[in-house]
Specification:
heterodimer, A: two-stranded antiparallel sheet, 15 helices, 4 strands, globular, B: mainly alpha, two-stranded antiparallel ribbon
Chain lengths: 340, 350
């Protein structure tokens, strides 16, 4: 709505332009409304708290949620194919504690990081193979992944392990700042993941195949697209993102903890949905998920600014999720009516 | 024999019996049931008693899954139910009174029923995907429970309330009797009336059943409402057992275990045909597995690994691809055997 040309024009042209825009870009609407909500939230926060929009605070917004951004990006790909991955939070916990444990045993960081990513990828591969070759529903297959990763995290260690490795801590402690704004390597990694995923989804054959599978798996197969490979790969990518998120979270908290990320999969799903990705698949944007995470992070920060109880966080996120789902539902119903 | 093997409860029951057999061999006292003061005690009785919350939740989940749905919010509803009941008891002047407990339980059940109806409304009237519709309450529910308990873990000392979880009636644990009643009531409603068939019809083909005159909307709505109510009872048993309302820990992951129990029992997540008996077997299997893991001395935090392996094995065993492989391998062997015997015959002939 705000993205439309606002220069004064004859009302008729404006209305027709508006409806044309709506017709052509219906799938963008949820993401655009997420942008509107984010801006409204930030403005509201600025009115209430004068120092909310300080560069330092906004920079922290990105860094506090770097791990969630990475998880949401991987999850977006899975959801666009029409699947779901519940394992992301547990994979993050597993790779995080694995990282801390291996470092404590004296392994160098340049070996540990690839091991984490491979660990995440293997769990993703397991889910993908179950989904694609054994016809298991994504929900159940990734549920097995969730249990497996959570249990393995506790097998690695029952308690938290401190990380002393300078290379890992460098990721979080280094701050490059420009006039109050600052960014750490973890933030750059998160943004890089978003950028790569954006490029892959919109400019490569793989990305188009992902959208095609979500639109109609049968049609994608009949078109000769490599559905099997793409579907497995999407879960592997989500697993790798889980591993990377584990690295970011370990760097962020300076320790591995097997209880990390309980319920994070729900936060990630909520962020993806708020960002405008349809859970039925076929429609969604990686950048939208970034917006979704930022909306999530802003609400969280706002609640801590207001000194309210964190329990409101869950209620507000739940309510926001509901609003977005109903909006999406209306949009889908509308486009279906038009389709007939 | 073939009919026995082909029965859809065959493999779930075999799995349960194997687990029980392993336990009995590992520790013979597992199978023993002793009578003390006219009350039954033993590992098996413990399993029946401890399985009550999961049993109640899984029963509701079976019906919801039969309608092609899923209910992720059961754990959150349990937390809310426990929080409501304990907050009322805690605030009352007479926490040990039977009347107070009755009021608290009724209030908790009312709230749970309302939450279930909210889910049903979102799914059946608004038409939102079940996973997402119930995800809303799953996220918000624990927040509500935390608000009710003011962020604390409310603890009470109320013998009548604890009786719900730890008491005994006619020699059996009350919690088990509650879950047994729920099983019988649900089974009667679903299998002795047309409701079960209509539920399956809605799950198999919602559009066709609507055209055939089935009131799909009402059936789906009722399924979620009943699941909410059952989760509420489960929450009461859970909180009565630990005598506390812990908004974060109550019913954590129970939705996943309940779904697992339903799938283990042989009900497909695709909706349609469902089996109450299968779910009962599935719940008992999970509870026995949990008791086994505990017995093995594995830290309970690590038990998810075992469940992951069980899930993976079960879904692979159930998968059509494996059946196709098994069939082709079987046929190849049969053919090989046939050609061997023909060679033998040829030898004899020569």
């Amino acid at each position: 709505m705000t993205a439309i040309d606002t220069r004064p024009k004859p009302a008729e042209t404006f209305a027709s332009r508006y409806s044309t825009f709506l017709r052509r870009r219906a799938s963008l609407m949820p993401t655009l409304s997420a942008v509107v909500i984010l801006i409204a939230l930030l403005i509201g926060a600025r009115v209430r708290f004068a120092n909310f929009l300080s560069p330092g605070n906004l920079s922290a917004l990105l860094l506090d949620n770097a791990y969630l951004i990475v998880l949401a990006v991987g999850l977006t790909l899975v959801i666009i194919t029409g699947g779901i991955d519940l394992s992301v939070g547990s994979v993050m916990a597993f790779t995080g504690i694995l990282c801390a444990s291996l470092l404590a045993q004296g392994l160098p960081a340049f070996l540990v990081v690839p091991i984490m990513l491979v660990g995440g990828a293997l769990i993703g591969l397991l889910i993908g193979v179950l989904v694609q070759y054994f016809n298991v529903q994504p929900f159940i297959a990734s549920l097995a992944g969730l249990f497996l990763a959570r249990g393995l995290a506790f097998v690695v260690s029952l308690s938290s392990i401190r990380v002393e490795d300078p290379a890992i801590l460098w990721l979080q402690r280094t701050r490059w700042s420009v006039g109050g704004w600052y960014i750490t390597p973890t933030g750059i990694i998160a943004l890089l993941v978003v950028a790569i995923a954006f490029f892959v989804m919109h400019w490569t054959r793989f990305g188009r195949t992902v959208y095609a599978i979500g639109g109609s798996e049968q049609s994608a197969r009949l078109m000769g697209l490599d559905v099997a490979r793409t579907k497995v790969l999407v879960y592997v990518i989500s697993g790798v993102c889980g591993g990377l998120a584990g690295l970011l979270l370990t760097a962020y908290s300076g320790a591995g903890y097997p209880r990390n990320g309980i319920g994070t999969e729900l936060d990630a799903i909520a962020a993806v949905v708020i960002g405008g990705t349809l859970l039925t698949g076929g429609t969604g944007y990686v950048l939208g998920s970034l917006i979704g995470v930022l909306v999530y992070g802003t609400i969280k920060k706002l609640i801590s600014f207001m000194g309210a109880e964190q329990s409101w966080m869950q209620i507000i996120i739940g309510a926001l999720l509901l609003v977005f789902i109903v909006v999406q539902r209306l949009i889908v119903a509308r486009s279906q009516r038009r389709g007939r | 024999m073939r009919r026995v093997i082909r029965h859809r409860l065959f493999w779930p029951i075999v799995a349960l019996l194997v687990l029980i057999a392993i336990n009995t061999i590992a520790r013979p006292q597992f199978i023993g049931i002793t009578v003390r003061n006219g009350q039954l005690y033993g590992a098996l009785i413990d399993i029946l008693r401890n399985s009550a919350p999961l049993m109640l939740v899984a029963l509701g989940m079976t019906i919801v899954i039969a309608t092609r749905g899923i209910d992720l919010s059961v754990g959150a509803v349990m937390a809310v139910s426990g929080a409501v009941a304990l907050t009322i008891i805690d605030a009352s002047s007479d926490p040990t009174g039977v009347g107070t407990v009755a009021v608290a339980v009724l209030a908790a059940l009312g709230v749970s029923l309302a939450l279930g109806m909210w889910n049903g409304l979102l799914v059946s009237v608004v038409g939102i995907q079940p996973i997402i519709a119930t995800l809303v309450l799953m996220l918000a529910g624990r927040g509500v429970a935390l608000l009710i308990t003011d962020g604390f873990i409310t603890t009470v000392n109320s013998p009548p309330y604890s009786f719900i979880a730890t008491g005994y009636l006619i020699g059996l644990p009350v919690a088990f009797l509650i879950s047994l009643t729920a099983i019988i009531v649900i089974a009667l409603f679903e299998r002795r009336t047309a409701l079960g068939v209509l539920t399956e019809a809605v799950g198999i083909n919602p559009e066709a059943s609507r055209l055939a005159g089935v009131r799909a909307r009402g059936i789906v709505f009722t399924a979620y409402a009943v699941t909410g109510l059952l989760a509420g009872i489960a929450g009461i048993i859970y909180s009565a057992n630990i005598r506390a309302a812990d908004a974060n820990a109550t019913g954590l992951f129970i939705e996943l275990y309940a779904i697992l129990a339903v799938v283990l029992g042989g009900t497909s997540l695709m909706g349609g045909k469902f089996t109450i008996a299968g779910t009962v077997v599935g719940v008992l299997t999970i509870q026995t597995l949990e008791s086994t893991i505990l017995f093995l001395g594995v830290p309970s935090a690590q038990s998810p690994v075992f469940f992951a392996i069980v899930v993976i094995v079960v879904v692979i065993v159930q998968s059509p691809r494996l059946h196709a492989w098994a069939r082709s391998a079987f046929r190849a062997r049969a053919r090989g055997a046939a050609s061997d015997s023909s060679i033998d015959k040829a030898k004899v002939a020569s």
